[in-house]
Structure formats: structure tokens, C-alpha cells
Amino acid sequence: MNLNEYSAHDGVGLAQLVARGDVSAAELAALAALAIETVNPRLNAVIEHWQPDVAQPPASGPLAGVPFLIKDLAVSYAGRRSELGSRLAAGLVAPADSYLMSRFKAAGLQTIGRTTTPEMAFSTETESALAGPTRNPWNPLLSAGGSSGGAGAAVAAGIVPLAHATDAAGSIRVPAAFNGLFGLKPTRGRSSHGPGLDEVFAGFGVQLGLSRTVRDSAALLDAIQGQSPGDPYYTSAPAERFLTQVGRDPGRLRIGLLRTPWNAGAVDADIAQATQLAALHLQAQGHQIEESSFDLGVSWEAFVHANAQIWCATLVRWIDGLASATGRRIDASTLEPSTLACYAYGLQARASDFAGALEVRNSVARTVASWFERVDVLMTPTLPQLPQPLGTYSAGAAQMNGLEWTSRVFQHSPFTPIFNVAGTPAMSVPMATAASSGLPIGMQFAAAFAREDVLLRLAGQLEQTMPWHARRPTVWAGA
């Protein structure tokens, strides 16, 4: 197998070749390493790579033997660095595998390195002082999105067919949209953050991955689904595997359509046009489209304020712990301006403010649940704007406080964080490209709590009727 053949396959396809003996897992790992050498200098998506663990026991399954990358945050690999995209944590080594890492290994995935992330994942772009900017493979002058931007760029460029990613406000769906990938944010409680983390931003954070095909994300969700000791949330496993949902007829769905984000911001013309064409395509597949406002239940300002309280207060504990572990000072030599601002804001948060933020979480979750009593799926653009030039996003960060920075993050991605607060599943599907630039455009679909099955069936239908597999970015390992 050569690099062109390797990059053309998805993860499930590669695992099938390994199972048949057509290629070995070691050969695939070598090809992934070659792909990193070939394209990573132009992208800066992989911060560290290594040889796979030969002591890992052989496994079987839909992803066994497939090269894999983990995000530099929220998952721990024993003996490997875990730096959270921050100079404050530079050089820190994980003493043990996290529960999620153990499940990746049990699935037979060959983890070969770490992908870049913005500092503490508190951004929807990926330009850290520790690692530098991560570039979009469709146009290296543009952002790859975040906070799973390294994962998005690596998968889109053909380095690996799928990669670990996290999502607390859109960090799977944003890079999926910017890089032309499929990205599913699971339901709260689908998998474990333990043992080092508990509920991650009051339950807003979840983990899964980014992929080029729907079935790869479904297989990955099967691999990590399940409860671990002490988990604060648990969502029961479905009666059937998620992978079996891909390719099934979704039936005639009632799809709500929201064109304007909850912050009432503008949507790029290319994205507005893609949204209209996507709605027409769904109608042609027999689905019923219902356009409505889908009120959030609280003001946008109250929503952002509540998230700032929860995010910034949580960051204080993370940062204090990292400073204690490394013996480093908490100042501009170790943290970026936006992170320092959020740390200062979190120090000022009162317990009553945090409790008030949880009340907002409850209100939003109840409101979002009511939407799915009248529609099966809600559709929005994933993002209101196309990728920006590198350096644009963080302009003026040094003059912002923590609330202002949180507002910027949410203004950049106003369609996505609602479903983190509600805990419901949502996905970005690469349904279009911009007529003006050829950049990918993602459409977001959300469903009721624990209804990933509905989303995966719909995604499988869209993958067949509006296929994206033939699209290739400018920077492609198989070129």
C-alpha cells in the first residue's frame, strides 16, 4: 500500500484490510508517520508523534489496527506528555491512562501522536503560544477552527482517517465545518472523562472525534460508549450498535430550520445559500421542513454570562493545579492574555453566581427538550462565517476581560454551544462548498437527548445523496 491508497480509505475500510491480512497494522502506522512528515510542516496539526505501543494486545473490531491521534487535552496516555496547549503545562507527562484512553486501546486503535489545541481549549480556533498556529488544509492562510483544530486539519489532510476530539461549545463541530469533515458531538454522559476529570464545565464537555465518513464516527462512539466508576453522568447504551444505524432509512423526519443564530448575528451569503440548498435537498428526500425561531428561553446575554461563570471558574482550578504541578508562575510568561483574563474573571466568581449559571443551564435544557416534541431534528448552519485569516480571531485579546473573551468565542460559533448546555447530540455534516472560495461549509443537525441514532441515519442518507468523499483540500497527504 502506498500513501495515496492509504489516505483514500476511511478507518473502517483500513481495519477491514488489516483483518483480511491485506496490510498489517505496522504498515499502516508507517504510512501515517510518512503522512505526518509529508504534510504536517505545512499545517502544524500534530504537536508530537511516536511509534505505536507494540506491547498493546492485539484486538479485533471495526477500527482495529487503524492509526489514530489524540488531542492534547482531556485524555491521558501513560508516559506521554499532556500539555493542554499551554506553556504552563509544557513537559507534563501523564502517569496513567484515562478511562477513555483505555477504551481507545481496547478498540485496537494505534495512537501515534498528539494534535494541537488552543490553550485550555478556550477558543474556537487553534493558535497557541506553545505550538503556534494550525493551518487549514483547504487554504493554509486560514484558521482550521478549534478547539480540536489539530485533529480537524490532520484528518482533512489524510494523515489519519479519524482523530480524537472534544466539544464543550462546538469544538468538534467547528473544525468539522472548517475542514470539510463529519463531526458528531455525543449526548452528555455517553463516555467517561475519568478518573482525572469529572463533568467538565458542568457537563458541557464531551469527547469523541472527527472523521471523513459517518461510519468511522459511529464505530468510534461504539468503542467509547459506557460508564466508568464515579462518573457524574451516565446515558444508557442503545439497544443496537451505533454503527448499525449508518445506512438505515431515516424515515420521513420533521426537520426544524433555523437560519439566524440566537445572537441575531449576520450569516455569510455563501452559507445562507448553502443552507437554503440543503433544506431543498432534504425536502427532496421526503423530509418535512418547518422554519421557526426556536426561542432559547433566556437572553443571549444571560446565556453567555452563565457560560463565562462556569468556564472561567473551572479554569481557575485547572490553572492552579497545573501551576502547582510544574512550579511555574501564573503570569504572561506561562499563559496567553485571553487565558489570564478568564483566570482573573473566574477568581471573582461567587458561589451564588455559579449556582445562577446552573439555573440558566436548567432553563436552556428544558427549553431545548421542548423543541424536540414538535420536530425530530433541528437544522442550522454550523457556523455563520467562513474561516478567517490566521491571527484575526485573537486581535485585541489583551484588552479583554473573561466575559468579553467568552462573548467573542460564542459570537464566532453562536449555533453550537446551546446543545452543549442542553446535553443533546448534534453533528456537523459537510454538505456544501462556498461558491466564492471553494471552502467547505457544514450544516448542523441536533436531536433529542440520546438520539444519536436519528442523527446517524440522517447523516448516512446525506453521505449517499450529497457525497463529499471526492473533495480534496489543497494540502493532502495522498497528492
From TrEMBL:
One of its GO terms (molecular function) is 6-aminohexanoate-cyclic-dimer hydrolase activity. InterPro entries: Amidase, Amidase_CS, Amidase_dom, AS_sf. It is an enzyme of class 3 (hydrolase). Pfam families: Amidase. Residues 55-456 form the Amidase domain. Keywords: Hydrolase. Its EC number is 3.5.2.12. Belongs to the amidase family. PANTHER family: GLUTAMYL-TRNA(GLN) AMIDOTRANSFERASE SUBUNIT A, MITOCHONDRIAL, TRANSAMIDASE. This is 6-aminohexanoate-cyclic-dimer hydrolase.
